[in-house]
Amino acid sequence: MAAKIDSIEVEGIKVPLIFEEDKRLPLVNTQIVFTNSGSIIDKKIPGLAKFSAKILNEGTKTLSSNGFADKLESRAIHISAHTGTETFVLEVSSLNDEFANSMKYLSELLKDPNYSDEALSKVKTMTIGALSKKENDYDYVASNELKKLLFPNTPLANPSAGTPQSVQSITLKDVEGFVNSHLVISRAIVVVGGDVDLADVKKKVKKILKLLPKGKSEPLPHYEASDKAQTSILKRDTQQAYIYFGSPYNMAVNDEEYYKARVATFILGTGGFGSRLMEEIRVKRGLAYSAYARVHVSKSSSYLSGYLQTKLDSMDEATKSVKDVIAKFVKEGVTADELEQTKKFLLGSEPLRVETMSQRLNRTFMDYYKGFALNHSEVELQKIKELKLKDLNRFIQAHKEILEQSFAIVTK
Questions:
Q1: pLDDT for 83-102, tens place per residue?
Q2: H or E stretch including 234?
Q3: CA–CA distance, 229 with 407 (Å, rounded to integer)
Q4: Which of 177, 209, 241 is the last residue before a domain boundary?
Q5: Residue 225 has what DSSP assignment?
Q6: CA distances for 406 relative to 145, 229, 232, angstroms
């Protein structure tokens, strides 16, 4: 059964419901997704959204983390909170026989979250410890530095988990304020799949939604990537050079030409050994084990980014090679053979991208979230199949903004 769109009316608000019945396994997965509630809103305190999710993962105040976890484990129920850049997600999974109990425990969590000094201290200690370890993860360091270059003075310039300093400053009042203003009915989208009846889902999830404030929905901010080509070099005790690069990519999240960007980027740097960057930088020049580039198109931003590692004494040559490969790509476009091979891969591997219920639900959610029709993915595949070489190359040559590359490099 394909996923479909329905709704649950609560407090005069029609909350979208994405649902797929699947009786092959006796399982149910439920997600309540809150839009404009991820790290994109961490303007004053970087890391607050992710930290708030971790507090909710500490169980109820009455039972504490261990007591609540024991209750869930005894019934094979999993409840977790996690965040993305734009969303905050409450996720519940269980056997179908335990669906009612899973909703009951989610209700308990929302009524009595563990807003205690003990939970606050524990999450701070674990988060700051993890962030301190990442100071020696130079992929993480270079990636964060690139975001600072592309999105200066915006929330996107900050690490989604925050910094040791910002995390240390978080109070229980900050967490409560975040949860009360962002986990609200007006921002909710419900996603449910599994061996469960739609009417039962609507009845039980409605009770959960009624526990939340009505709140208000706000437009998601959009941040333009900087077109000022800059290079930031960070000196660390490393045996390799970590090179991260990025540029603007002028495309809206609901752009009907996104399928062309998908094909073009696959050929440039997403397609593994067949991609231009891999062919030129690894195969022909032996400068790196791998080199990748991909396009990120979301409601809050749109940009191209890529990365590679190379020897310290090859850093300058590798950086120049990236610029040369992208410049040639924009100027000359792709070949008929590259387009044909990419079509074969994208069309041939499609069944692997929709073989599980969670994959299908996620695809339906993303299509809905971006404002597309339910059959958008199928339509996009047909467009890829019919894509002409001249139209793809015209599209590539029109996106000269990707030539304005910024580099964040960690080296010795």
A1: 999 999 999 999 999 999 99
A2: strand 231-235
A3: 8
A4: 209
A5: P
A6: 10, 5, 8
The verdict on 192 and 301 lying in the same domain is no
Do residues 16 and 209 touch, judged by C-beta distance below 8 A?
no
pLDDT in tens, 341-374: 999 999 999 888 888 888 888 889 999 999 998 8
CA distance 46 to 160: 7
- Give residue for tokens 């062919």: 279
Give 294: exposed, middle or buried? Use CB within 10 Å, 0-12, 13-18, 19+: middle
Count of other CB atoms within 10 angstroms of residue 389: 15
Is residue 42 domain-shared with residue 107, that is, in the same domain?
yes
Checking phi first, is residue 11 left (phi over 0); if not, alpha (psi -120 to 50) or beta?
left
Question: Distance (Å, rounded) from C-alpha 192 to C-alpha 202?
Answer: 10
Domain co-membership, 338 together with 393: yes
Rounded Cα distance, 49 and 38, in Å: 6
Q: Which residues pair with 292 in a beta bridge?
A: 307
The answer to whether 408 and 142 are in contact (CB under 8 A) is: yes
